[in-house]
């Protein structure tokens, strides 16, 4: 299983949780990322599967809390801004969000709030208020993209700085190819999102196939099949924005940029752009957060 901590957490629900070896023919690119034994017994572990939706709900809350702690470590918080939401596996029209005005670095699984399709706090989670603007953005993205199990948005420094140009990122590094062909741009700014129209405009910028969008004069947003994927893609986009800003500064002083060709970028994207890979990319951070918190984040 993914980590010692996670294993001990879910062994209490016997037979209800298992790692997904992600070894079927549809995920060949994922398995090609690592080398095991000659007999093919050792395989990369993908997104776990569950027979019990309540076990899955708890697993989601634990990984969601760890994602917030990771955002806190990266300095993505700014006052009450920033939110992650995840669709609930038991009540598909409900989703989990962070409580209003709680620092990312303090969030535990039990702090997360369950809200209905209209944004009202419901039973089943922490009885705390949520960010109104966060609901307006996330609810519209979840509505427009049923495949978006998780949505992450924050006002991180490099993402919001690069957003001031209203332009997509270039493929300047191999890591930027995590997002090749998957980044939209919302080229307007309607102010703080306190109305559904702004949320719909942001959802439109994501389109039907993008996994990320740059919101002009605002920040960044990413989606994923898991909260792990959404969190890792947000981090990857933030890193790409930082690289872009540094490269633009160098280019302004006469240093030529070398952008990865579309052919090579597509080849790289085909190798890494899978939900199992982006889930796995976040697991080192998940393990570290759990270890550093002494398991507190899972409570």
UniProtKB/TrEMBL annotation:
One of its GO terms (molecular function) is actin filament binding. It holds the Pfam family Aldolase_II. SUPFAM superfamilies: AraD/HMP-PK domain-like. It comes from the Eukaryota. Residues 62-245 form the Class II aldolase/adducin N-terminal domain. GO terms for cellular component: cytoskeleton. Residues 1-23 are annotated as: Disordered. SMART domains: Aldolase_II (SM01007). This is Class II aldolase/adducin N-terminal.
């Amino acid at each position: 299983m993914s980590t010692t901590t996670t294993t001990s957490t879910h062994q209490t629900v016997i037979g209800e949780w298992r790692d997904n070896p992600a070894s079927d023919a549809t995920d060949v690119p994922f398995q090609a990322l690592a080398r095991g034994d000659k007999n093919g017994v050792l395989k990369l572990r993908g997104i776990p599967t569950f027979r019990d939706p309540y076990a899955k709900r708890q697993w989601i809350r634990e990984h969601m809390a760890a994602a917030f702690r990771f955002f806190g470590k990266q300095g993505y918080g700014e006052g009450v801004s920033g939110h992650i939401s995840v669709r609930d596996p038991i009540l598909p029209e409900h989703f989990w969000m962070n409580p209003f005005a709680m620092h990312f670095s303090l969030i535990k699984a039990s702090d997360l709030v369950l809200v209905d399709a209209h944004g009202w706090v419901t039973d089943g989670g922490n009885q705390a208020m949520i960010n109104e603007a966060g609901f307006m953005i996330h609810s519209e993205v979840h509505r427009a993209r049923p495949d978006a199990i998780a949505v992450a948005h924050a006002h991180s420094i490099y993402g919001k700085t690069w957003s001031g140009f209203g332009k997509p990122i270039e493929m300047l590094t191999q890591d930027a190819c995590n997002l090749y062909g998957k980044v939209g741009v919302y080229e307007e700014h309607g102010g703080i999102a306190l109305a559904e129209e702004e949320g719909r405009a942001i959802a439109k910028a994501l389109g039907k196939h993008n996994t990320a969008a740059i919101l002009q004069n605002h920040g960044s947003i990413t989606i994923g099949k898991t909260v792990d994927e959404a969190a890792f893609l947000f981090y990857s986009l933030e890193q790409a924005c930082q690289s872009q800003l540094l490269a633009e500064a160098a280019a302004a002083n006469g240093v030529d940029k070398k952008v990865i060709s579309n052919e090579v970028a597509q080849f790289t994207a085909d190798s890494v752009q899978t939900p199992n890979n982006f889930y796995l990319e976040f697991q080192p951070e998940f393990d570290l957060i759990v270890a550093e918190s002494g398991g507190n984040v899972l409570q």
